[in-house]
Structures are given as structure tokens and as C-alpha cells.
Amino acid sequence: MFNALVLNQDENKKTTATIEQLSTSDLPDEDVLVKVDYSSLNYKDGLAVTGKGKIIRNFPMVPGIDMVGTVEESADSRYSPGDKVVLTGWGVGENYWGGFSQYAKLKADWLVPLPEGMDPIRTMQIGTAGLTAMLCVMSLEEGGVTPESGPIVVSGAAGGVGSVAVSILSGLGYSVHAITGRPETEGYLKALGAAEILSRDEMSVPPRPLEKQKWAGAVDTVGDNILARILAEADYNGVVTACGLAAGFKLPSTVMPFILRNVRLQGVDSVMCPYAKRQIAWQRLMTQLPEGALGDIAQLIALAEVPEYAEKITNGQVQGRVVIDLNA
Ligand code: NDP
Fold first, then answer.
1. The whole model's pTM is what?
2. What range defines the domain where residue 255 resides?
């Protein structure tokens, strides 16, 4: 028997989260049985566990969109017992039972072998949030942005995606301007490499169609007016990557930045990101995320603490990344 966090819905459609004792025969029938060592808490997990977002459609569900662990049994020739694997996305923890469990049964196609030398805790300190941050950086590069192009602005900077993005970009030599609604995180963000701190309130003021040009590129994790302002302030040929909606899913913008300044708005999705691109992103995360950064970015919690932290992350009260130790 092992522990898993199980979500159910009561008669009032309210989501409940309880730790249950399961056996491997309770798990959905998939190719690979993995003993999960660590998972992580992402904004989407927060929405799922609290029921604040319509993430889960079929109950009961084990949430957890990330996990790292060890293969115990495999019906697929690509994996053997003892192999270390990492999983992020593919709808796991949303449509399929996920990583907030000491064991999981998974499709081999969803797994990525843990890069040689990569520590499991570090892998989950990165998790979906870190992978997404790296995919944003790769999109900036694909759009021709280099450290010489000018400053990069990162929104939701003290959150998971934002923190990792600040760290990677500053490590690569970019001048990073960090937008935060929490002035108390200034020291943290500067330690991650932010050159300047911008106030969320000021950046949330609805922009004119075009504002003074300030940004060669952007990593936006929040959407709504902040994304609209970033677009209006983007340089000629600027590249704005959009991956999140912590402020809202609306985009109250105009076509002006696109048709007069050649601005590119690039969406970034980590969930269905193809395998080959994932592998490149994970390899780059191993080498290009400054070694010391993650210790400051991440905290370790037990499975029983997940509901409390799920509430916090949906209220914008989590700094950096939260790793879940399934054996604590
Ligand atoms: P976090 O909660 O860790 O970070 C979000 C940050 O956004 C907060 O820390 C806060 O930063 C800021 N924020 C919160 N509320 C507001 C608000 N009302 N207005 C403006 N800013 C706000 O979440 P993650 O980093 O895990 O995820 C960030 C976003 O990216 C989420 O929307 C998530 O769904 C999305 N995402 C998308 C992925 C994809 O594949 N496209 C993958 C992973 C995440 P601060 O205090 O510094 O202002």
C-alpha cells in the first residue's frame, strides 16, 4: 500500500483533497510503473487541488503534473527497472493520474530519461515551471533576440516560471527587468540576477496602442493588461513570449505593435511540447541554469502540506518553486 493525494467532488461540486492508501492495482493500466520520488507544485496544480480552476473533469483524480522517479516495472522496451525518469505535462495530473502519489502508472511516450548527472530534487525544482521558462528563452532566441538586443522584461517574476526565467536569462547575459506585485521580493529577484524591479501596479495600467520602446523581448506569465503593456512597449522587432494567465486570460491590446513595430507574439506551451524539443530544453536546463539559483528558488514540502500550498499558490503567495517529497 502507498499514499496518494486523491481529489473527489462532493454533491455541491466542491473539490475535496484527501490522502488515501492505494495499492498498485488501483492505478490506471499503463505501460510503466514508476516509484515517484519527488513531484512539484505548479499554478495549475493549485487550481486543480483547490477546485478554483476547471482543470479536472473526471473524479477521482490524482493530481500532480510533474514527477521524477524510478521505473519498477515496464512493458515497454525503452525502459527497464531502475531507470530514472522525469515526466511533465501530457495531461498527466489533469486527465490521467499524476505525481502526487508514491506510485504512478504511465505511458512510456510521456517519459524522458533523466539527463545523466541530473539530481532528482533539482529536476523538480525546475519542473514544468522551469521547462516552460526555458521554452520561452528558446523562443526568444528563435526570434533573433540576443543579450545585445536590449533588456528583457519578465512578469510574475517571483513566481515559479518567472523566477527560473530571470535566473536563466541573467545567466545568459541578458539585462532582466522583473515585474512583481511583491516589493518584499526585490532582494530575492536581484539575487537571481534581475537588473531592475518594476511594480505590478504600474505595469497593469492599460497602455496606449503604442508606448515608448523599452523591451527587446519578454517572458509574460500573467496575461491581461500587463501583457498588453509589454506589447505596447516592445522594441521594433521585439519578441514577446506568452505562457501564463496569473492575472487573467484576456489580452486587451491592439494590432499596432504588430503592424508598426514588427513585434512578434509567441505563445509557449509545455504540455504538448514534442519530445525532441523537451530533451533539448532539459539538457540546457542542466547546464544553463546557474547552479546556486535553485536552492534559493525552491522549498521542500510533504504530501500532506499540498492542500495548504495549493491555496497559497492560487493566491500568489508562493515565492519560487515548491518541491514535494513523496517519502517525507
Ligand atoms: P506562480 O503562482 O508560481 O507564479 C505566478 C506569479 O504571477 C505570482 O507569483 C505573482 O508574481 C504573479 N501574479 C499572481 N497573481 C497576479 C495578478 N493578479 N496580476 C499580476 N501578477 C500576478 O505560478 P507559475 O509560475 O507556476 O505559473 C505562472 C503562469 O504560467 C500560470 O498562469 C500558469 O498557468 C502558467 N503556466 C503555463 C505553462 C504552459 O505550458 N504554457 C506551464 C507552466 C505554467 P509576483 O508576486 O512576482 O507579482
1. 0.94
2. 128-267
